[in-house]
Amino acid sequence: MKSKKLWGGRFEEAPSSIMVRMGESISYDKTLFAQDVRGSIAHARMLQKIGILSKVELKKMELGLLQVLKEIKANQFEFKIENEDIHMSIESRLTEIIGDLGKKLHTGRSRNDQVSQDVRLYLKDEIILILESFLSLLAVWIRKAESSIDIIFPGYTHLQIAQPIRASHYFLSHFWANVRDFEEFLASFDRADELVLGSGALAGVNYPTDRVFLQKELRLSAINENSIDGVSQRDHILKFLFSVSQFSLHASRFAEEVILFSSLEFSYFRLPDSLTTGSSIMPQKKNPDIAELIRGKAGRVIGGLNHLMVMIKGTPFAYNRDFQEDKIPLFDAVNQVKLVLEGVREMVRELKILEKNTEKSLKQGFATATDLADWLVKRKGLPFRSSHEIVGELVKRCTEKHWTLDTIPKEERKKIHEALVDPEYEEAISLETSCEKKDVRGGTARRRQIEQISKAKQKLNDLTKQYIQRKGKLK
Ligand code: ARG
Questions:
Q1: Is 279 a catalytic residue?
Q2: Closest Cα to atom 12, ligand 1: which residue?
Q3: Atom of ligand 1 nearest to the CA of 327
Q4: Which atom of ligand 1 is nearest to the CA of 25?
Q5: Start and end of every Fumarate lyase N-terminal domain (predicted)?
Q6: How many angstroms does the Cα of residue 327 sit away from the middle of ligand 1?
Q7: Overall domain count for the chain
Q8: For 199-230, how does the pLDDT look when each residue is reduced to its tens digit (9 = 90+)?
Q9: Residue 330 beta carbon below 6 angstroms from any ligand 1 atom
Q10: What does the H/E/C string look like for the chain?
Q11: Closest atom of ligand 1 relative to the 201 alpha carbon
């Protein structure tokens, strides 16, 4: 049987079942249908402009492509494995609708430049949606910081209580990490925002393709300079997968904090019932599944980045069929990052801090021991090494007797050092004072938090402008 493939001219035999099943990408790349139609309409218009299609032919072709689009959107399109991928599926349906004229569409184009262009258009569309969701997450961090500025929270290093901080400070630390993620996504958008059509299979095309016209039609910011590079590289996808991975790492670390801090042993956070799940066997359970899934998904998307890097690494010269599978981690990352953005946003919005428990831990964890040592230096003129030693002894004594820095009796303090019975002692170990003393830009003092919140708002404004500017570059 002679092959009926669009590329089947030179073939005597039809592809075997294994070739068809392994070669197909239609099962997943149908996601690109809208971008493929958009790219084809632009290409057809360019073909008319350079005299390959007449005006009447162009009109018919555009209407045909729009009908295909309509059929796919209405779920009335039959995807056939024999058509391999979205590009050939659309083209062969177009030919069914408008007859032999449909066969002119692929003039001066290869699927190699077509698929790269489609993915770039897809990335631009999806990144705009991701940025939109991101802006609302950033706004939620700021609101959370504003409402928690007067809550004192245990700050950790090595997962051991270190120093008191304002809860706003903690939430803003995640805000700034997410600002960098947002900027990565902006850069991924810019990386994708390039015309590759006209690269052909790899060498360029035998027609006077008007690439400037195509660039304007598709609203792209640049034209790639080298046709081999145009069809060879997947840096736009790598960059995007890196952006998703970086954000997912940040989300995963926050999720881990939520998991820990909402356990009985910490009890600093409470998630609402609506964001948790029960157990089918243990009636008492309330599990932070949303946070665990966010942590789990980080592994999945980082795996996707790794998948693509390893896949590309050994591919020689220009297009290789391996590249077909670049879309699997890409589509997955797009879907997952949207879920994670929404999940993190809802957790932040709904999270309650249980202040009694945070205060108890701060005290039991001697969170102001450093402040006391510094006070001994500043007010009592002791060298820091000595004050460190004295406070160390104080902590040791407290630990033995289950006291905290504010419950240890005066006479016990006196045994350790004269200076510890000074009337300013209470002040020196106060959580609030400890925060207020960190009066440096970026520090935890109240006025510095207010300053930071206003900086965060300015940043959000600036990022919103950048988002609007990129959105203007969509077709
Ligand atoms: N489905 C293919 C892909 O996603 C399209 C390009 C096919 N090109 C080729 N030379 N067979 O990469």
A1: yes
A2: 324
A3: 4
A4: 1
A5: 9-303
A6: 11
A7: 3
A8: 999 999 999 999 999 999 999 999 999 999 99
A9: no
A10: CCCCCCCHHHCCCCCCHHHHHHHCCHHHHHHHHHHHHHHHHHHHHHHHHCCCCCHHHHHHHHHHHHHHHHHHHCCCCCCCHHHCCHHHHHHHHHHHHHHHHHHHCCCCCCHHHHHHHHHHHHHHHHHHHHHHHHHHHHHHHHHHHHHCCCCEEEEEECCEEEEEEEHHHHHHHHHHHHHHHHHHHHHHHHHHCEECCCCCCCCCCCCCCCHHHHHHHCCCCEECCCHHHHHHCCHHHHHHHHHHHHHHHHHHHHHHHHHHHCCCCCCCEECCHHHCECCCCCCCCCECHHHHHHHHHHHHHHHHHHHHHHHHHCCCCCCCHHHHHHHHHHHHHHHHHHHHHHHHHHHHHHCEECHHHHHHHHHHCCCCHHHHHHHHHHHHCCCHHHHHHHHHHHHHHHHHHCCCCCCCCHHHHHHHCHHHHCCCHHHHCCHHHHHHHCCCCCCCCHHHHHHHHHHHHHHHHHHHHHHHHHHCCCC
A11: 10
* Owning domain of residue 271: 112-147+167-354+454-471
Give yes or no for residue 453 having a pLDDT over 70. Answer: yes
Ligand 1 atom, smallest distance to 29 CA: 4
Respond yes or no: is residue 169 known to be catalytic: no
C-beta of 369 in contact with ligand 1 (< 6 A): no
Say if residue 90 is in the same domain as residue 126: no
pLDDT in tens, 378-433: 999 999 999 999 999 999 999 999 999 999 999 999 999 999 999 999 999 999 99
Together in a domain, 93 and 118: no
Position 5 in a domain: no
> Given ligand 1 and candidates 29, 91, 106, 112, which is best to mutate, with the most ligand atoms within 8 Å of its CB?
112
What is the 115 CA–ligand 1 centroid distance (Å)? Answer: 7
Q: Mean pLDDT score of the chain, rounded to an integer?
A: 96
85 Cβ below 6 A of ligand 1: yes
Same domain, 26 and 78: yes
Answer yes or no: do 215 and 324 share one domain: yes
Predicted confidence band at 3 (pLDDT cuts at 50, 70, 90)?
Answer: low
Residue 162 resides in a domain: no
Catalytic residue among 16, 17, 158, 280: 158
Residue 115 CB–ligand 1 contact under 6 Å:
yes
- pTM of the predicted structure, to 2 decimals: 0.95
Q: CATH no. for residue 310?
A: 1.20.200.10
pLDDT band at 8 (very low <50, low <70, confident <90, very high): confident
